[in-house]
From TrEMBL:
It comes from Paenibacillus tritici. It comes from the Bacteria. This is Helix-turn-helix transcriptional regulator. Pfam families: HTH_18 (PF12833). Residues 9-107 form the HTH araC/xylS-type domain. Signal peptide: none annotated. Keywords: DNA-binding, Transcription, Transcription regulation. PROSITE patterns: HTH_ARAC_FAMILY_1 (PS00041), HTH_ARAC_FAMILY_2 (PS01124).
Amino acid sequence: MYEWNEMVQRMIDWVEEDLAASPTLLEMSEQLGYSPYYCTRQFHVLTGMTLRDYVWQRRIGRAALELRDTDTRILDIAVKFGFSSQEAFSRAFLRAFRLTPHAYRKAPQPIPLAIRAEVFSPYHYLIRERDRMRQVHLQEAEIKLELIPAHKFIGIRDIGSNNYGGFWKNGHDCDEVSGTLESMSHYTLPGQLGQTAGWFYQDGRKGYLYGILVAADYDGAVPEGMECWDIQESEYLVFFHPPFDYLQDNGQVMQIVEEVAWNYDPAVMGYVWDEEDKQDYQRHFPEGYGYAVLRPVRKLD
């Protein structure tokens, strides 16, 4: 039923393995056993763009990060990512981000980078595997304390949403928001993963948030459509599951962690929840970090 989700994801994976020299449409179609026309048609149906446009957007985005993070010559970056000349690269960069590579290198600013497409999810995996019996023992959530220093949170708070799916369905463009935050990844507060979701509390209501943690003294640009909040230093109870297979175990791992996180009594560790003017955070990096829910606490008086 979702055969093409998996095959288009394989095409995406092949492209991402080496953006500078990704396989041709003909080579990918031969691997998949379908005509180039049918492969590119299905790619467009599932991603909303042509394969050519996807490769172009990902290359120009990765080139932007190299401009930001390295001293490599602009010409060398252009050649590395498949542009015929520095002039061609500059024209493409200007079209994508409305500034030149030189101007961006001199003064990096938030720009909407294209993010990696994901069209084959745990849901599709479970549908494909529904007739196969699989038994796996997932460990219980670990509970530990972590001190997060005072910081600023740049992103979006939505009081009309209380979960990840609802947040993106409530008028926020996932690609644009995530891509813009990716261009700010070099400002990430040390010790944090990067883009972070979570929850906040306002007038007794619980909303959902998405953004990035940066240093308390950050005084740079705040992307259009986002805001910046000061968050006090706090200890957090971290409810954590180590790395796991995203496709096979994501739903179960999130359920295990959140069941403990939302029902735990911090008094057994000498703490109380301290969420009134702070935020809960949600870390989700299955293969590299795992999954965690962080809730701020303070010591009992």
